[in-house]
Amino acid sequence: MDDERPVNGQIPAGLVYRRLLLPIYLPTLLSSISLQAFVVLVPLYVLQVGSGAPLAAFLLGLRGVGMLLFDVPTGILVARFGEKPVLVAGLAIMTLSAVLFAWSGDPWAMSVATILSGMGFTAWLIGRQSYITDTSKTNERGRAIAAMAGIMRLGGIIGPAAGAIVTQVFGFSIAFASLAICTSGAAIMVAVFAEDVRPQAKSRVTHLTRIYSIVRSQARALATAGAASIGLQLMRSARTLLIPLAGHFLGLNITAIGIIVSLSAIVDATLFIPAGMVMDRYGRKWTGVPCLILFALSLALLPMASGYKSLLAVALLAGFANGLGTGVLLTLGSDLAPRNSRGEFLGVWRLIGDLGHAGGPLLMGILIELATLGAASAMAAGIGILGAAALYWLVDETLQRD
Length: 402
Hints:
Elements lengths: L12 H36 L4 H29 L1 H21 L3 H29 L2 H33 L1 H22 L13 H11 L1 H31 L4 H16 L2 H10 L3 H17 L6 H17 L3 H9 L5 H29 L2 H22 L8
């Protein structure tokens, strides 16, 4: 068909998106709505059942622990069994997590449920990344992954509002049950529509040996591109924490802060199509470097915000910067992954990024406690600039023309 012919060396975007619509994109929307609602509802549920704010913070921290613990094992499972079983299992684990919250308010049960949520999300994310890498060419991969990341951001807009409305009308148990229905529906779609891409051949080398070999052979890429990954993930987690805190310190009410965060998220979610097109036409650095620089600038300007309008301007800049980087880390990881050890490499790559994601709030909290919010913002901005420098000067462009 005419729409399947490459245009200026690129596969038409419509064909890329249609091929992944049922096995990846629609399940991603359902799972993201569930996940983003889950992250908002858990702290409120903990307070509802009579536990304190420290437990709520602890539970969200446990979710990060589950992600870190399961990054490398997920890569091994993908390499051993292929993407489809890992995708379905990840969604099933996320479903079980929501069911546990719907069923029990016991702190131990909630602790297990949040760890399971992190594990399931990691399996679902790495499995999707590997699936798109297996089923897409290099010069369509940026658009394919950026679209997935954009849909995840759309879920971040829909999920919290939908979860709050269902909770207000029906209560927490029904809300968590609804989240389980979303993820189970996503699992069914993957099971029905995803291709069963299996590893090409069994290797006599153990997975741990292959991981050690990857770390040795890919040390430069993991150190340089990994620095950019840590920097961007740290700034993303810092943005989530620091902008609401800045609003609180400026005396803004919860509604005003919520509007600022939502508007920033909307700007963020609108850029996935142009970001993917630029990555596939010009290269990954063309979005990654500006993303890191503008993100660092927004965090550096955060302490200068003096009211609603100035904080909104900073938040919109941060949303624009993050939108420019839609899918860039996932695409870089897919490009860098060796063909014969893709699963193991993606597990290690995800682990590096999650160090920044999980360590960011901890570092910001320590700096705010010991110094000021301004010091935390400056530190995050400085790390982001170092990440941009590493990506620009030390990382080779990974876009290869098929």
